Amino acid sequence: MTTKRRQKPANNNRPQPTRPSNYEFMPYTGTGTEVVDDLTTGTVPSWRLMQIARWHDAKHAGRNGRIANMLRAVAGMQDDARAAA
């Protein structure tokens, strides 16, 4: 024989986390490409940059497209430097 237990009521008396009433989010002022702005030639192999660019292209977002373009530009500069050497 099994006994059916009543479920305990939800505890609605717990204090809820609140934010200050004067809290405002700061507006985003970045370029959207901060993750690749400091990328220089010679730091990452070109084949890896192209793989990452393909991944960003698959995301189909404006920011990801800009990141992919910057990655391709750095890979192109690396290839040009290697060809000139």
Lay out the secondary structure.
Elements: H1 46-58, H2 62-84
Helix pairs in contact: 1-2
Describe the structure concisely.
The chain is an all-alpha fold.
Unreliable stretches (pLDDT < 50, length at least 5) are none
Instruction: Write down the oligomeric state.
Output: single chain
User: Helical percent range?
Assistant: 40-55%
Strand content: under 5%
Helix-strand topology string: HH
Q: Can you tell me about this structure?
A:
- With about 80 residues, the chain is mainly alpha-helical.
- It has a domain at about 45-85.
- It is built from 2 helices and no strands.
- Helix 1 (about 45-60) runs antiparallel to helix 2 (about 60-85).
Task: Provide keyphrases for this structure.
85 residues, 2 helices
